[in-house]
Specification:
- The chain contains ten helices and eight strands.
- It is an alpha/beta fold.
- The protein has one domain: Rossmann fold (3-Layer(aba) Sandwich), CATH 3.40.50.
- A six-stranded parallel beta sheet has the order 3-2-1-6-7-8, sandwiched between helices. Strands 4-5 form a two-stranded antiparallel ribbon.
- Helix 2 packs antiparallel against helix 3 and helix 5 packs across helix 7.
- It is globular, with a radius of gyration of 17 Å.
Amino acid sequence: MEGQRVAAFFDFDRTLVEVESGRIGMEWLREHGMLPTGFLIRVLAASYLHKIHLISDERMVRTMLTFYRGRRLVDFQRGSEEFYVGYLKPHIAPNILAKLNFHREEGHLLVLISGSLRYLLEPVVKDLGFHVLFCTDLEEGDDGLLTGRSKGPICVSENKKLFTLKLAELEELDLAKSYAYGNDMVDLHLLELVGNPYVVEPNAPLEEVARQRSWPVLTYR
């Protein structure tokens, strides 16, 4: 039976905020002398390969996650609210925030769906009133230390589609009447699922898709 509830799905990096949260986080760590040289070299190499499309978005995220190996999740959770308020909240895109507020007023289910990490996004959910969060979780070992791997799937590309379909079944969503906002080809699977897809300051490949399919294109401001 067709669902009756409408949802609005928002990507985070370069959609709801005008920046890459992971990049800002890594820059903060570098400035505070917390990035090992070997890790920094691996990330720079992976970033180049990702830019020329030789490694996938998921592989890029997995490379970033190796930073957390041997560390404690609680140490990052403690500072997550302060980091959000000081470094991410100032970059919330006004036009996309207005869309979020519109969907809230309409009574839509608000979903934040991002490849970013849970500890970074939980303050966002709390502050902006999202109902559901889909993201990437960090795996902890039996010793209580992070393994440098994800717990469960990385929330990008096809996995965004799978998370959305599961939620649609659970909440009896009408995806044909629902909305999604994204900026990158990793959001394409999600955008294709809903009847009202919006692209936000898209990169060139997604902009071309939007043009071909007559999808609305939004700016940050």
